[in-house]
Write a sequence for this structure.
């Protein structure tokens, strides 16, 4: 019995130590923050991850229009990605992103930015952006 408990304890300790290595990359934050209301299109959109990821897709969905791809930098693995001059339209803009986390699992999420001319810029409290693992 003592041998069983020792083996069990060792197994649990090893599992606990390897858990951080199995964690998926997640978004730490974006600029602008999802849910922001702005008077005009921001000069750039930034997505920051907690660890290196590889952004594979960044598109804007606007009501009544086809999705539009955004160019982003860098093109390889990084913790921060930037799309310059996204030219967001008046109204609700849904920026959809897809990435591969450091461990190779696909992840995706959405950033909502509303463009309302004449609006005083409002930013909701910082929170984790919507994202889901596959």
């Amino acid at each position: 019995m003592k041998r069983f408990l020792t083996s069990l304890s060792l197994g649990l300790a090893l599992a606990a130590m390897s858990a951080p290595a199995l964690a998926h990359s997640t978004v730490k934050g974006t600029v602008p923050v999802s849910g922001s209301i702005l008077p005009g299109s921001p000069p750039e959109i930034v997505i920051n991850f907690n660890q290196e990821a590889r952004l594979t897709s960044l598109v804007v969905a606007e009501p009544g229009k086809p999705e539009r791809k955004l160019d982003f930098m860098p093109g390889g693995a990084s913790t921060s990605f930037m799309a310059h001059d996204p030219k967001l339209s008046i109204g609700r803009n849904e920026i959809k992103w897809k990435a591969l986390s450091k461990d190779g699992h696909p992840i995706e999420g959405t950033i909502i930015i509303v463009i309302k001319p004449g609006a005083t810029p409002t930013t909701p409290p910082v929170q984790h952006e919507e994202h889901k693992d596959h």
User: Anything to note?
Assistant: Helices lie at 2-22. The longest strand covers residues 44-61.
